[in-house]
TrEMBL record:
Organism: Eretmocerus hayati
UniProt protein name: Uncharacterized protein
Length: 282
């Protein structure tokens, strides 16, 4: 399992600083990890074909999920992962006029063009249902074989945020000092980034996005996930855009080398060999 590269599409310019004062804030951390299991507050989007199903599943962190087990079997099975008689959702469409399209695309561009990657946030609270809607929007993303290989974990607890900040700042200090190297740190200099991550305790919400390398079928077998990184990345794009559309602000970040410690803190399932080694050492 490898950590994704950090996504940085818009630099933060000091002159935009005043724009966020008084705004609601959301810090977004993207971390690509193993399949979902437990920890924090967790939202999982079910198949859209499941009618009358509450799309948000809130898991009790103390619940025992061991019954789901580890997938021990391969996928040499002739039954598909989705139901054979999968019910398809009816598509309703009415084509807008060209002028309507022009206007809608222009307005949408204006909204996306106003997004900035920020490293300071207002601690003002944001209604929880807004975050739920945003995650539901991200969960409408297309995915390989409709496997929806993602888990969103939302952290708002101040103690947990402090623990996360401690882990990230510790690793990032090493990253900047040793791991990233001269070229990388030189390229980042104009952006003014460093290992101090006050925003991790300032922002009202941290959203972790976990990649599920595979799922577990009801019969305990492994459910194959296809194009998982691409699928998760598309979902992240929708997530960020939904946050922007709601009038909130974000930082998209993948703190290098923090995966194992964050997985452990957030009680995520064992991931890479590196994570297992980390667990063994701690
Ligand atoms: N993870 C570090 C370094 C960093 C920062 C921005 C960026 O676009 C890239 I690529 C890397 C940090 O978050 O400071």
């Amino acid at each position: 399992m490898k950590e994704s590269s950090l996504m940085e599409s818009f630099p933060f310019f000091a002159k935009h600083g005043h724009m966020v004062l008084g705004c609601f804030a959301v810090a977004l951390l993207i971390n690509l990890l193993l399949r979902s299991c437990r920890g924090g507050e967790q939202f999982v989007r079910p198949f859209r074909t499941e009618q009358n199903h509450n799309p948000i599943k809130e898991l009790n962190p103390d619940e025992d999920f061991s019954e789901y087990g580890e997938a021990t079997d391969g996928v040499e099975d002739d039954s598909p992962s989705l139901p054979e008689n999968l019910e398809h959702v009816k598509f309703e469409y009415s084509r807008p006029t060209e002028n309507e399209m022009r206007e809608r695309s222009r307005k949408f561009y204006e909204i996306t063009n106003a997004r900035r990657t920020l490293r300071f946030f207002s601690p003002d609270p944001v209604p929880r249902d807004v975050i739920v809607n945003i995650i539901k929007a991200a969960g409408t993303s297309p995915s390989g074989a409709h496997t929806e290989p993602w888990t969103f974990v939302v952290v708002s607890n101040p103690d947990l945020k402090s623990d996360i900040r401690r882990i990230v700042e510790h690793e990032e200090e090493l990253n900047y000092a040793k791991r990233m190297g001269k070229r990388w740190t030189t390229d980042l200099r104009p952006l003014g980034t460093n290992w101090h991550k006050e925003y991790l305790t300032q922002a009202p919400y941290l959203i972790f996005v976990f990649k599920q390398d595979y799922g577990i079928l009801p019969n305990g077998k492994r459910k194959m996930h296809y194009y998982k990184e691409m699928s998760v990345a598309i979902a992240c794009g929708i997530l960020i855009t939904a946050i922007q559309y709601a009038g909130l602000v974000t930082l998209t970040s993948t703190p290098l080398n923090c995966g194992p410690a964050l997985r452990t803190l957030l009680k995520r399932p064992m991931g890479s060999l590196r994570h297992q080694a980390y667990e063994a050492l701690n």
